[in-house]
Design goal:
The complex is a heterodimer of chains A (about 400) and B (about 500).
Chain A lengths: L3 H8 L8 H4 L9 E7 L5 H4 E2 L6 H5 L10 E2 L5 E2 L4 H8 L3 E8 L7 H10 L11 H7 L9 E3 L14 E3 L10 H14 L1 H19 L2 H7 L4 H13 L6 E6 L14 H20 L6 E7 L19 E6 L30 E2 H11 L5 H8 L16
Parallel strand pairs in A: 1-8, 1-9, 5-11, 6-7, 6-8
Antiparallel strand pairs in A: 2-4, 3-4, 5-10, 9-10
Chain B lengths: L3 H10 L8 H6 L2 H7 L9 H4 L4 H18 L3 H10 L4 H5 L3 H26 L3 H13 L13 H9 L7 H10 L1 H6 L11 H4 L19 H10 L9 H10 L3 E3 L4 H6 L7 H4 E3 L9 E3 L2 E3 L4 H13 L1 H15 L6 H13 L4 H9 L15 H11 L11 H6 L17 H4 L2 H18 L6 H9 L5 H8 L4 H10 L1 H4 L2
Antiparallel strand pairs in B: 1-2, 3-4
Helix pairs in contact in B: 1-3, 5-8, 8-22, 10-11, 11-18, 14-15, 19-20, 20-21, 25-28, 26-28, 27-28
Classes of the chains: A alpha/beta (about 400), B mainly alpha (about 500).
Chain lengths: ~400, ~500
């Protein structure tokens, strides 16, 4: 049971103590874990999961076409970008499920609106103020004070809502005086319950982060995926840790000079590949019960633009990864890239509803009841029935 | 009878908290102190007046873009060289476009943020400065959009500041005509489908990327309706969005030429002077918005439509709700909203009279500390409390970024959230307290009494537990940190 002394000792970095706040109130609860990585900016799915077997691909993509020779073959149609080597190994171990030609319900091309729809699980942008993951976590037995965790200073929309969640991000300021924080907490407890709750939650999160080398992270700065992914794993694999965590990675809006095997997109993919691998390593045995969802707000134009980049498009690529994923295949109802097949003559036509993917994972992995999924998390998504068979049985 | 309690409430709720000694001045007439600052000031704060003009910021941005394009296409060669020289990908990333931009614009951006903060910490009219922040957030132009990255400070200076004590309709027009808003919400990309530019694309202006805009872009029109005037429940339809978008096609700004970049000349013109109506891009003919048909030619059509939007009862209600939410409570009392909305309508959108109605509302002086200060407001409170005249190093962009509110960088066109839920999160509270501690450590001196400072800043509003905690502190620095972290300093 928690008392303030153990809490503060944890903040001070005493490694022997574990995770006080998360540790109370153990109820019969799931040992499944979920990490959602939101790729902000619109990942170019036609580079990440290249349809090298599509007869139109090479000519349509021109200088931005991934070559069959260097690509990492998945099946007769698809290959991973050459920088996704570790993800390719996951695929061969049947722990990676690439999904292609997918989209939310949104069909315009604004980042703000598209991310809003991706995260609210809604039909129209800015129609809802809570995130689908928050809603889904609210349907589970509330077995810990905070069911979800955002690896950022503010919870992103996908995790915002009535279900309590925590937030953690690396510090750039010098170390704090823990005695001062203890006194502060005492003052809050006497005067201000909301501040007391927030501070307690932050102290608890810091205790976990410290154990996983967050002080190094603080020096490294917030821009890399790997250290943050490792910290996410530390939170998730703890017995009393959050059920789900969310990370955000920006930098995918490659309008100009996006490059092929080098350049900003290739660097981003390497970082993602490394980050996912580091997450897997850090999860250890818990990886077997874990699913990682990697999704972006929309895909990019099928053809390059005049600046050797790609513009906002529609059909996108996404990934499921993890020991609990029924992977080793590509999930796509491939519409093809022939001229007449493109959506509005410019984008990959979406044929798989991302909400069906999310619902499938939530239903079969976290065992979220169907009523909660349909009414709370993804209203008006009847047409997007939960996809079956995403999860290993 | 001086009322220090009401003075503390006035100073924190309507301003940024008092500077030393200010509480006693306010106590004579707290309500009068607030109201006296609602009049439009004659001059800009000196820090703001010294900032470069919008044209100069645009030139600097254009120069950077041109340089980037000239140097583009070398990425592959650069990476080869990096490999030969043992430079890691990680290090190379520091040279990426964004970083390069930050490098090139750090001084300009830092200066603009420092000017905004220093204007607030030194101001004798903090109530006015708070209103500048409020309206600048209502009409958000954010550096989060790369194309608009150079423009938020001049937007605030040109379109917001002159109208804070004036007419809402004037602010709406100035906002919609400023290059900051026109770029941020894409109106410069909007071309009427039956306009001369669309009929003859070769006549259309080129975009920086070389292409030409091809159709209507609804972005600005939608946000004018949804965020600037009527509000999302204000009773408009998608057809109204399309109609307003068509009405303001051709609203753009004078773009610099390559020769201007080469000459290194300073730009002197403000954003209003850069506005340009491109008749070639304007969708011809009358349009119907909210049931009213606009038959004017050219720019007059949009001006008439904006004037009507500014006067619409839904706008009065929406603005009143936002003001009451900002100053009174996250869930603002209906009586106050009605009073403020009525004042807005009665005065034809006079913002001074609108605010006077808010200040005269009893609700504005009840329920102390119902609002949780946003990070920027909070940081300014601390700086004013210790009589800072300039921004201490480290108190600027980096600290506010860590606290979740980098000035001029709101995440979306709806601006920074104005409810506690968005800011009272574990990590953001922690980051605030880190800031409070670091700041305390820097300013602590033996002769600086935390209790005296707390009395000067909070008066009778300082609670007994807070006073006790400060008195029991083991050092002046810890005492200051406890004062700065106390609920009374974070709420208003």
């Amino acid at each position: 049971m928690l008392n303030r002394r153990t809490l503060l000792a944890g903040v001070a970095g005493a490694g022997a103590l574990s995770f006080p706040l998360f540790a109370f109130g153990q109820a019969l609860t799931t040992d499944k874990r979920l990490l959602v990585i939101v790729l902000r900016g619109g990942l170019d799915g036609l580079s990440a999961v290249a349809p090298v077997g599509d007869p139109s691909y090479a000519s349509l993509r021109g200088r931005l076409a991934v070559e069959r020779a260097t690509a990492l073959q998945l099946d007769s149609t698809f290959a991973l970008h050459p920088n996704l080597r570790k993800m390719h190994a996951l695929y061969r171990a049947q722990e990676l499920l690439p999904i292609h030609a997918c989209a939310t319900a949104y069909r315009e091309r604004s980042h703000f609106d598209a991310q809003n729809v991706l995260e609210t699980g809604g039909v129209r942008p800015f129609a809802r103020t809570e995130g689908w993951l928050n809603k889904a976590l609210g349907a589970l037995p509330q077995s810990r004070p905070e069911m979800g965790l955002a690896l950022s200073a503010q919870a992103p929309l996908i995790l915002r809502g009535r279900t309590p969640v925590s937030t953690w991000s690396p510090s750039t300021l010098p170390d704090v005086n823990t005695d001062t924080m203890a006194r502060m907490l005492a003052l809050y407890e006497a005067r201000d319950p909301a501040l007391a709750h927030a501070l307690e939650s932050a102290m608890s999160a810091n205790a976990i982060a410290m154990e996983s080398g967050a002080s190094d992270m603080n020096r490294a700065g917030p821009r890399t995926i790997t250290p943050l992914a490792q910290i996410a794993a530390r939170f998730l694999k703890d017995d009393g840790g959050p059920i789900a965590a969310v990370m955000e990675v920006g930098g995918w809006d490659t309008h100009a000079n996006q490059g092929l095997e080098q350049g900003p997109l290739a660097r981003g993919l390497t970082a993602l590949d490394d980050g996912l691998d580091a997450f897997k390593t850090e999860m250890g045995a818990a990886w077997a019960n874990t699913i990682v969802i990697i999704a972006t707000e929309f895909g990019r134009t099928a053809a390059p633009n005049g600046a050797n980049g790609t513009d906002h498009g529609t059909g996108a690529a996404a990934f499921l990864a993890g020991g609990a994923v029924n992977g080793g295949r590509v999930l796509a109802d491939w519409p093809g890239l022939a001229r007449g097949a493109l959506y509005e003559d410019r984008d990959l036509r979406p044929t798989t509803d991302l909400r069906a993917v999310f619902k499938g994972v939530l239903a079969d992995h976290l065992r979220i009841a169907s009523a909660a999924l349909e009414r709370e998390a993804f209203p008006a998504s009847d047409a997007a029935r939960p996809l079956q068979g995403l999860v290993r049985t | 009878m001086p009322d220090l309690s009401l003075a503390a409430l006035a100073a924190h709720r309507f301003g940024f908290g008092p500077r030393p000694g200010e509480l006693r001045t306010i106590a004579g007439d707290p309500r009068g102190w607030v109201k006296a600052q609602l009049r439009q000031p004659d001059t800009l704060p000196p820090q703001i007046a010294a900032l470069p003009a919008a044209e100069d910021d645009l030139l600097a941005f254009g120069r950077w873009l041109a340089r980037r394009r000239l140097n583009g296409g070398n990425a592959a060669r650069l990476e080869e060289r990096a490999e030969r020289q043992g430079v890691t990908q990680e290090e190379l990333r520091r040279l990426s476009v964004e970083e390069d931009f930050v490098e090139n614009f750090r001084e300009r951006a830092t200066r603009a943020v420092a000017a905004r903060l220093e204007a607030a910490i030194t101001s004798e009219r903090p109530v006015h400065e708070r209103l500048v922040h409020f309206w600048s957030n209502h009409f958000t132009v954010s550096t989060a959009k790369p194309a608009a990255i150079a423009l938020p400070p001049s937007f605030e200076k040109d379109a917001i500041r002159p109208h804070v004590g004036g007419k809402f309709a004037d602010m709406l027009r100035a906002s919609s005509k400023h290059p900051g808003m026109i770029v941020y919400l894409d109106n410069w990309l909007s071309v009427g489908p039956n306009s001369a530019s669309a009929q003859n694309p070769r006549r259309a202006r080129r975009l920086p990327g070389g292409g030409r805009p091809t159709g209507i872009n609804e972005n600005l029109a939608r946000e004018i309706l949804e965020l600037h005037t009527l509000g999302v429940t204000g009773g408009y339809t998608q057809a109204d969005v399309q109609s307003l978008a068509a009405i303001i096609t051709g609203w753009t700004y004078q773009r610099a030429r390559l020769r201007d970049f080469i000459s290194d000349a300073r730009g002197e013109r403000n954003g209003g002077a850069l506005f340009e109506f491109d008749a070639d891009a304007h969708e011809p003919g009358p349009k119907t918005l909210l049931g009213r048909t606009y038959r004017q030619e050219g720019v007059a059509q949009g001006e008439a439509a904006l004037n009507d939007l500014a006067r619409h009862p839904a706008t009065a209600r929406f603005i009143a709700t936002k003001l009451c939410r900002h100053y009174i409570a996250d869930a603002p009392p209906e009586a106050a909203i009605v009073r403020v909305a009525n004042a807005f309508e009665r005065s034809d959108g006079d913002l001074r009279e609108t605010m006077e109605a808010l200040v005269d509302s009893p609700e504005a002086w009840e329920t102390p500390r119902a609002k949780f200060k946003r990070p920027e407001e909070y940081a300014i409170t601390l700086l004013r409390a210790v009589d800072a005249r300039q921004l201490p190093p480290g108190a600027g962009i980096a600290a506010l970024t860590a606290m979740g509110q980098r000035p001029y960088a709101a995440p979306g066109p709806d601006g920074w959230a104005d409810i506690a839920d968005a800011w009272l999160t574990a990590d953001l509270v922690w980051k605030r307290l880190e800031f409070a501690q670091a700041f305390s450590n820097r300013i602590a001196r033996a002769d600086l009494s935390p209790i005296a400072l707390g009395d000067a800043c909070l008066g009778p509003a300082m609670g007994d537990e807070t006073r006790t905690a400060i008195m029991r502190a083991e050092s002046p620095a810890q005492g200051l940190a406890l004062l700065f972290g106390a609920p009374e300093m974070q709420r208003r």
